[in-house]
From TrEMBL, chain A:
<keyword id="KW-1278">Translocase</keyword>
<dbReference type="InterPro" id="IPR017879">
    <property type="entry name" value="PotA_ATP-bd"/>
</dbReference>
<keyword id="KW-0472">Membrane</keyword>
<dbReference type="InterPro" id="IPR005893">
    <property type="entry name" value="PotA-like"/>
</dbReference>
<dbReference type="InterPro" id="IPR017871">
    <property type="entry name" value="ABC_transporter-like_CS"/>
</dbReference>
<dbReference type="InterPro" id="IPR013611">
    <property type="entry name" value="Transp-assoc_OB_typ2"/>
</dbReference>
<dbReference type="GO" id="GO:0015594">
    <property type="term" value="F:ABC-type putrescine transporter activity"/>
</dbReference>
<dbReference type="InterPro" id="IPR027417">
    <property type="entry name" value="P-loop_NTPase"/>
</dbReference>
<protein>
    <recommendedName>
        <fullName>Spermidine/putrescine import ATP-binding protein PotA</fullName>
        <ecNumber>7.6.2.11</ecNumber>
    </recommendedName>
</protein>
TrEMBL record, chain B:
<feature type="domain" description="ABC transmembrane type-1">
    <location>
        <begin position="87"/>
        <end position="293"/>
    </location>
</feature>
<feature type="transmembrane region" description="Helical">
    <location>
        <begin position="220"/>
        <end position="246"/>
    </location>
</feature>
<feature type="transmembrane region" description="Helical">
    <location>
        <begin position="274"/>
        <end position="294"/>
    </location>
</feature>
<comment type="similarity">
    <text>Belongs to the binding-protein-dependent transport system permease family. CysTW subfamily.</text>
</comment>
<keyword id="KW-0472">Membrane</keyword>
<keyword id="KW-1133">Transmembrane helix</keyword>
<dbReference type="GO" id="GO:0005886">
    <property type="term" value="C:plasma membrane"/>
</dbReference>
<keyword id="KW-0812">Transmembrane</keyword>
<keyword id="KW-0813">Transport</keyword>
């Protein structure tokens, strides 16, 4: 394995339709995904993440740009020539084949010897813990088991890159959590580069080495989960990843001031900006000098914590996250005047 | 009353009511299907009457005459070659018709199933239009196409591809063309139904797993649409084997199929027992062929 990226997209443009009804699904997207990396494409539905995945798999041909696999240009190659395999959202298991035959399919198509096909199939089935069900048909399996077959089938031919198209979206919450750690384990054991597509930000944050956030055909930000969460480049990323309070503010003389006049951060430039603060970075306290005055308007109990809805003196709404205590009520009653303490470094200043 | 007796009585009453309710259907089956078949079976074991019809006594002569013939002069027994030729022609024409309708029908059904939802109805409608016309008229239409001064020969001569018309009409080829045309919709419709249920995402999965287009057809498409292939083949093969109108009109008098031969026995030849025996034979062959075909295709389906 070389030191270069496992897969690289260079200035990918993908347009659908013709004439006046052209839709730009991908708009000049470039990204490098390293060997052995767990990379997640994250974005709302219709943002182009699946189209990018399909360009890498070969099901779509980019209108412009290049796809490199291990440094080699594969833009014009059909899917059956690319050492890339896909785990489909619908799994797309062959209903007429047994679990073992499904897993063996890719190996047989590659013309591997009988012995090698059998050996690899057995190894893959053991890897996803399905050795007991090798002779079953897919329709006799549960959703989670089908998911494992799809994974084993895509991993069996030892692809250079494994593409996963929202593979967990059809599973219930508990199973999804289980499969998340299962996927991490599989990636660790096989050492194959994973490119994972999801619209679930929590899934992206917990599983990925790096995340690429997409919106409207553009790749907005690429970074580690911590980067993306703590230093979002714009309002969209901040809003999409986790919950955030957006407050109108002004930059003036090296200080960022809220509309109500309080200085919340230092920052260059002048003119209107937006300040983003995560709800868990706000602490409720007795109103005092240096704290942000606010009025409690209500609270939502969420189990591990409560969302306290507050209003600042300038009229803007803010949500603070207060951990639950065993004693019971942790949120003050509506109408209470409180002071908001902002954790150091929690204020993100965004353009506009 | 012992517990359980009441339930047993209810069950018995239900069973009796069930029989009563299905009586009309059973009666219809008895009178409409089993009865006539029984008549034909009995006829095949009687002696032929002088002017058609059947008389006693019981006789195996008709069944003997299906495969064998006795020389009028010296009484030696030999195979009835003329009959065997007809059986053989019926068999190969039906098998090849089934194959041809499949080869033509699969792309057709695939084409329809991959159209946008709203235009599929129109295509299916077009496929079924021939059914609106009398079979005889359709057969004569084919005759118009393939006869020596017909559309096909005129076009080929006009293009300079041939010097003189090809004799297609009144050959086995004419019968083959006619039957393929007539039975094609019976293959297309079940194939369409199977392909319509086909999950096209499986093609992407196969393509992703290094399958060539041919491998996709052989390993993914054909095994999955197999029920449609089986249904279409049965729907085409059975009526093709018993074809009467098409070989009569297009094949000419010489190129009989078993259907024409049976008609001949009940008509000019005035040998009803032989006609009845031939009919029973046709029924047996079709049933046997069906059983074998269904069993073999089911096994292949299991083996994947």
């Amino acid at each position: 394995m070389g030191a270069g990226p496992a897969v690289e997209a260079q200035n990918i443009v993908k347009q659908f339709g013709q004439g006046a009804e052209v839709v730009r699904a991908l708009d000049d997207v470039s990204v490098r995904i390293a060997q052995g990396e767990f990379f997640t494409l994250l974005g709302p539905s219709g943002c182009g993440k699946t189209t990018l995945l399909r360009c890498i798999a070969g099901f779509e041909t980019p209108t412009a740009g290049r796809i490199l696999l291990g440094g080699r240009d594969i833009t014009g190659e059909p899917p059956n020539r690319r050492r890339v395999n896909t785990v489909f959202q619908s799994y797309a298991l062959f209903p007429h084949l047994t679990v073992a035959q499904n897993v063996a399919f890719g190996l047989e198509m590659l013309g591997k010897s009988r012995a090698e096909v059998r050996q690899t199939t057995e190894r893959m089935l053991a890897l996803v813990r399905l050795d007991q069900l090798a002779g079953r048909r897919p329709d006799a399996l549960s959703g989670g088991q089908q998911q494992r077959v799809a994974l084993a089938r895509a991993l069996a031919p030892q692809p250079e890159v494994l593409l996963l198209d929202e593979p967990l979206s059809a599973l219930d919450l508990k199973l999804r959590k289980e499969m998340q750690s299962e996927l991490k384990r599989l990636q660790h054991e096989t050492g194959i580069t994973f490119v994972f597509v999801t619209h679930d930000q929590e899934e992206a944050l917990t599983m990925s080495d790096r995340i690429g956030v997409m919106s409207a055909g553009k790749l907005l930000q690429v970074g580690t989960p911590r980067d993306i969460y703590n230093r979002p480049v714009n309002r969209f990323v901040a809003d999409f990843i986790g919950e955030t309070n957006f407050l109108p503010a002004r930059a003036e003389g090296g200080v960022i001031r809220l509309a109500s006049g309080e200085a919340v951060a230092q920052g260059p430039g002048s003119g209107p900006v937006t300040v983003a603060i995560r709800p868990e970075q706000l602490r409720l306290d007795v109103l005092a000098e240096g704290l942000l005055p606010a009025t409690v308007e209500g609270a939502t109990y969420l189990g591990t914590d409560s969302h306290v809805h507050l209003r600042l003196s300038d009229g803007s709404a803010v949500v603070a996250r207060v951990p639950s205590s065993p004693a019971g009520d942790s949120a003050p009653p509506s109408g209470t005047q409180v002071g908001l303490r902002i954790a150091p470094g929690a204020v993100q200043v965004l353009e506009g | 009353m012992v517990p359980g007796m009441a339930e047993m009585a209810t069950a018995r009453r239900r069973a009796r009511a069930g029989w009563l309710l299905s009586a009309p259907a059973l009666l219809l089956l008895l009178v409409g299907a089993a009865g006539p078949l029984l008549v034909v079976l009995v006829f095949s074991f009687l002696t032929k009457g002088g002017y058609g019809g059947v008389t006693l006594p019981l006789s195996g002569a008709a069944w003997f005459g299906v495969f064998l013939e006795r020389d009028i002069f010296d009484g030696t027994v030999s195979a009835a070659d003329a009959h065997l030729v007809i059986f053989w022609r019926s068999a190969w024409l039906s098998v090849v018709t089934t194959l041809l309708t499949f080869v033509l029908g699969l792309p057709t059904a695939w084409f329809i199933a991959t159209r946008p939802e709203r235009s599929r109805g129109l295509w299916l409608f077009l496929i079924t239009i021939p059914f609106w016309t009398n079979l005889l008229i359709r057969t004569f239409a084919i005759m118009e196409v393939i006869r020596n001064e017909g559309l096909l020969n005129t076009a080929l001569t006009g293009l300079g591809l041939i010097d003189r018309p090809i004799q297609i009409l009144f050959t086995d080829w004419a019968t083959l063309i006619g039957m393929t045309y007539v039975y094609l919709p019976l293959m297309v419709l079940p194939l369409y139904a199977a392909i319509d249920r086909f999950d096209f995402r499986l093609l992407e999965a196969g393509y992703d797993l290094y399958a060539s287009r041919l491998a996709l057809l052989r390993k993914v498409i054909l095994p999955i649409v197999r029920p449609g292939i089986v249904a279409g083949s049965i729907l085409v093969f059975i009526p093709a084997l018993g074809s009467y109108v098409v070989p009569r009109v297009l094949g000419g008098g010489k190129n009989m199929m078993i259907g024409n031969f049976i008609e001949l026995q009940f008509g000019q030849a005035r040998n009803w027992p032989l006609g009845a025996a031939l009919s029973m034979l046709l029924l047996l062959v079709v049933t046997a062929a069906l059983l074998v075909y269904v069993r073999v295709s089911a096994r292949e389906g299991r083996d994947g």
